[in-house]
Design a protein that fits this description.
Blueprint lengths: L1 E4 L5 H8 L11 H8 L3 E5 L3 E10 L2 E9 L8 H13 L3 E7 L3 H9 L3 E11 L1 H6 L6 E5 L5 H8 L5 H7 L3 E7 L2 E9 L4 E7 L5 H12 L4 E6 L2 H9 L3 E12 L2
Parallel strand pairs: 4-5, 10-11
Antiparallel strand pairs: 1-2, 2-3, 3-4, 5-12, 6-11, 6-12, 7-8, 8-9, 9-10
Length: 256
């Protein structure tokens, strides 16, 4: 087994392995793979491709976004080899990842490599019918924010410092939710997906209107939303008609 960086010609292989994630996410197109994803992808292979990892390093933290082993190559140490290759390449102080709650084998692997559970998250999808039922409110508005506003909006929305900078580095749009000109929420928004992650509000009743406003901003009839460590917001999204796709643990570890 050896590890190598991705090439533009790996797109079809990436697509085939992407399905192993079983998230239901739309498959990135070739252009997005080449421009946005491939620079952070490494493959494990021998005579055939055994798996891949997609990771992103920003401001001293490495986010392992995908770790995939081909179905015929499991129980051969591929995932561990890829994780250790990421560790060598990341040169960061910390690393993190998300894993489905029911993926017991993966959780055990991550814990053996120094990760621990930090909090729970939930991934949702709003369809057109659910979005149409959400009432818009005249006292709420959303807007893209300037880089100089990042820290203030992150604090007001209760987001982790650096969330917006990381979003910009990944070509996402930082968005503030305002109620009567006061910041009450924030999101890192991908209009092409379309989805919001992180997605944060200061009160649960703001979650559904925020989701509808983001979908309208994208000009789409559906929206993916990931809610982190806010059970009241999770309940509000379900009450508004969002479909729970899967639940996750966010895991973190130290590298230095």
């Amino acid at each position: 087994m050896h590890i190598r960086p991705a090439r533009d010609s790996d797109y079809e292989t990436f697509v085939a392995l992407f399905a192993e994630l079983e998230t239901g996410d739309p498959v990135p197109n070739r252009e997005r793979f080449i421009e946005d994803i491939a620079p952070g992808v490494i493959f494990a292979e021998d005579d055939a491709v055994l798996g891949y990892s997609y990771f992103h390093v920003h401001d001293g933290n490495c986010h392992v976004r995908h770790l995939v082993t081909a179905s015929g190559a499991r129980r051969r140490g591929v995932g561990r080899a890829l994780l250790r290759a990421v560790r060598e390449r990341a040169r960061s102080a910390t690393w993190c990842l998300n894993v489905k709650r029911d993926n017991v084998a993966a959780i055990a692997l991550y814990e053996s490599e120094g990760f621990s559970i930090a909090y729970e998250s939930a991934a949702f999808r709003f369809d057109a019918t659910a979005l149409a039922r959400i009432a818009l409110r005249g006292d709420l508005q959303i807007r893209a924010i300037d880089e100089a506003e990042d820290a203030a909006v992150e604090r007001a929305a209760g987001m982790r410092a650096g969330s917006f900078a990381l979003g910009r580095a990944r070509k996402r749009e930082p968005i503030a939710l305002e109620e009567k000109a006061r910041v009450v929420g924030g999101a890192v928004f991908d209009a092409h997906f379309p989805g919001a992650f992180p997605f944060r509000v200061t009160r649960a009743d703001l979650a559904a209107p925020f989701a509808r406003m983001l979908a309208e901003r994208a000009g789409r009839d559906h929206l993916f939303v990931t809610c982190e460590a806010q059970r009241d917001v999770t309940a509000a999204l379900v009450a508004a008609g969002a479909t729970l796709r899967f639940e996750m643990f966010h895991m973190r570890g130290e590298l230095a």
